[in-house]
Amino acid sequence: MAKVDTSLVAHLPLFAGFKAEDLEEILREARSARYPKNSAIFEQGADAHAFFLLLHGHVRAAKTTPTGEQIVVRYVAPGETFGIAMAIGLAQYPATATAVDDSVVLIWPTAAWPRLVERFPSLASSTLLTVGSRLQESHTRILEMSTQQVEQRVAHALLRLAKQSGKKLDHGIEIDFPISRQDIAQMTGTTLHTVSRILSGWESQGLVESGRQRIILRDPHKIVILAERNPDSGPA
Amino acid sequence: MAKVDTSLVAHLPLFAGFKAEDLEEILREARSARYPKNSAIFEQGADAHAFFLLLHGHVRAAKTTPTGEQIVVRYVAPGETFGIAMAIGLAQYPATATAVDDSVVLIWPTAAWPRLVERFPSLASSTLLTVGSRLQESHTRILEMSTQQVEQRVAHALLRLAKQSGKKLDHGIEIDFPISRQDIAQMTGTTLHTVSRILSGWESQGLVESGRQRIILRDPHKIVILAERNPDSGPA
DNA sequence: CCCATAGTTTGCGATAGCGCAAAACGGGCC
DNA sequence: GGCCCGTTTTGCGCTATCGCAAACTATGGG
């Protein structure tokens, strides 16, 4: 059980207001682990034996239907928790988590949660805040899927990814982990073909520059406009 | 400030494990109010000055886009909380709540929440459970919108409503509050026209019986089959 | 009892986006 | 340096579903 440096996590909202010694007590229950690119962290349906905090890398959470279709629930960025199934009353993971890049995580055994919450009640409140904001995002996504067309949804998805995990370049923003057309399709409820067509279109207008699992927003502002444009307002 | 009878709420999961006197202490901070059918309880964007527990009736939570389109986030059944924006870190309500039937609610001022949580930490944990299960439902909804066609989504929506608020009849299940084609469209990401066509079709097959803001599932089992059927499996 | 209103049904194009298929491409591995 | 595999691109027909328009019908109020 490796010692974890508190300085790595002290600034996270999850631990806001914790004293150094409390933090240490919490971290003592965790171990850290490294997951190489494309390795599975846990599988949908498996017993939720642990919950996680991402330190480095990027993790994709995806949900699969009985018939094998997938959607991407979200991408986890460093500093975020994931796999907190048990905190919300689930005995099994509702989704599959995969490292999309070499990643480092902290792992707490599920059994530690009730103990920690009892000792540090504010953990429950902060977790409530994070879960609440994920609920918000889900509602936004439902709203978009109900009212917008595919191009706008893709625009929104890319902007969110850029905000969450964008690397600022001299001219533009690059999404900082490998992501395929298929992934974007699964985030926006469409097919990889349609995503490919949309990106090709944008590329020819100089809005983006993209290739194999790689996307750079060259003109974020114009993409914002695209994302917000009312379908039947301006001409093509 | 009317006295509220603890027996009305003691059995709710939210208050599981509370002693009678604790419960009384909590209820002392609440007042109750009655909202007539079709009246607004709070508006999207308004300051979240209170949170609510529905005692009788039914409440619709809906979200509106800047361009005026709406989706139904959920229907609230008796015993459920709603308007808990501030518990998840929001200063304004993210949706509009409307009583779809004459309704009675308990109302706590937002200011009471931090105090209550400090005094009764398990409130945060139970709220975490409810918010978590709503997150689950949202993900399910996103999955359905991404992978299923409209008819299946409508089937699922009606089955969920029937389970949550269905009144068992001699032969079938009636959804126990007024709900229009438009409402169902806004729950499933389609138009009232398409919903109407689908219900007409089902009606002629004897699966449902419906009219003005009224739906009875006459053959729930066949609807389950419809909901689960793989789009390109059986013949029409 | 009749009218006004909100909800529902239905017809008829129009079309965004899917689904299939095939080709081009790019990277990494041996 | 060449090959293999996963990813991306693109063409083309198809259809589920939308959007508009118009007729129809309960329901509650006066």
UniProtKB/TrEMBL annotation, chains A, B:
One of its GO terms (cellular component) is cytosol. Keywords: DNA-binding, Nitrogen fixation, Transcription, Transcription regulation. It holds the Pfam family cNMP_binding. The keyword Acetylation does not apply. Residues 14-100 form the Cyclic nucleotide-binding domain. InterPro entries: cNMP-bd_dom, cNMP-bd_dom_sf, Env_Response_Regulators, HTH_CRP, RmlC-like_jellyroll, WH-like_DNA-bd_sf, WH_DNA-bd_sf. Residues 148-221 form the HTH crp-type domain. The keyword Transmembrane helix does not apply. GO terms for molecular function: DNA binding; DNA-binding transcription factor activity. PROSITE patterns: CNMP_BINDING_3, HTH_CRP_2. PANTHER family: CRP FAMILY TRANSCRIPTIONAL REGULATORY PROTEIN, LISTERIOLYSIN REGULATORY PROTEIN. This is Crp/Fnr family transcriptional regulator.
